[in-house]
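Below is how a single chain appears once it has passed through the pipeline. First comes the sequence as given, then the structure the pipeline wrote out for it. We keep one example in the README because the format questions we get most often are answered faster by looking than by reading.
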Amino acid sequence: MELIAAYCAAAPRGRTAEDDARGLIAYLRGRALRVPYLAALLDFEEALGDVAGTFDERTVAFGCNPVTLLGALEDRRLPEEITHELYFVDVSAKRIRMRASSLSATA
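Resulting structure:
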């Protein structure tokens, strides 16, 4: 919560919630935080905002199973047993599709 408070103190309020989300994503990227999978999570959140109300699609790479990671975050707990594999998440306004790659990833 300290990061969000610091962001709110440092950043001007956006005109829309999307502006605020983009600002927070940029702020977190600029902090060089050593949080596993944070870059992929920020890419995913940015992709969700980018495709909203459009016919566009974005692909985000995850170095682990995104279902496991996102499920744990939704439940507000640390993920158990993260497998380090390369997954791609295709994000559009109509759907989110997850697919495993045949290549392995390093965390």
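The beta strands are 57-62, 85-92, 96-104.

See the next section for the split statistics.
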